[in-house]
Amino acid sequence: MLDAWMTLGAGLAFLYAAGHALSRHAMLARACLVALFCSIGIVQACWLRVLAGTIADSPGLMNLHYSALFMIGPCVLVFSRLLRPDEAPVWRRLGWHFLPAAVAALYGIGQMLSGHAPAKPDAWPVALSAALGAAYVGQVHLYLRSIENPPRYLRIESAVLGVLTLIGGGVALAAMLGSLLESPWFYRLYLSLITTVMVASYLLGVKYPELIHYLAEAPRKKRYERSQLVHVDVEGQKARLQKLMDEEQIYQDENLTLAMLADKMQLTSHQLSELLNERFNTSFSKLVKERRVQAAAQRLLAEPDVPILDIGLAVGFSSSSAFYGAFREVMGMPPGQYRKQSAGS
To answer: Does the domain at residues 234-344 carry the CATH identifier 1.10.10.60?
Structure first.
């Protein structure tokens, strides 16, 4: 049973990579997610072979896994930065995070050319990569903890990242002690924990599909100590936002992002985020979600013969889970129940 669970984790990692390659995230964000899950899958596949005693049959996998180890932490951090358009630096300022992975790749190539075929990973790359990974994931964990009044799903995600930080620290310690890399139970524990975390993250994303959008513009503590609206015609921008929502119904674009809306209003993402939080007492994700739900509620009654999901997709939701979850959150009931109750009253 445990062996099947560990093997499932490796398969899930590559499946997640394929799924994110087809997602609607921006290209760089997609690249980070694909690289992240491919790296996790490579490490898991390598360590499964170490556990089975068959790694000598795949020396290339062992050497490839060194660079994969150093990719995981930077991918998590860079993806979280790319979600924050008002803070995300340009790509050339993010690339240095991947230098350790490049050095590890050269190390792996050197091992391969020397004909070195170890039966277990070398201790120092594992220890160093795990420590760096824990530091990177820990930064994202701290970012989530800095968000004001986080919803329940964000607290859960923060806890998941906290567990990943502890796993990274534990692996680093185990590798430095050396002898634990000789123990089959160390690999079993590591692989089982990673599989559990991936499954938990997937279920969290299914239950709360708005999580990514919330992270993109969540208000953090003391974020607006220095206002970006000093030279902005706030009343004019409020009227412009109302027109975009009421007349142009821009929320119906399922790919709408904070940066896209800010560009429409000729503002920076930070200015728009501040405008929404300080002057409308809302956030980008909440505003768009509520507008879509309100539009869907109207159409559910005005178009009783149109399938519920078709209406949800027409107002801007990208999936049935996102539509049903948002509708239930805003209206307190599923859309089907809302249509029946409202039609019968």
So the answer is: yes
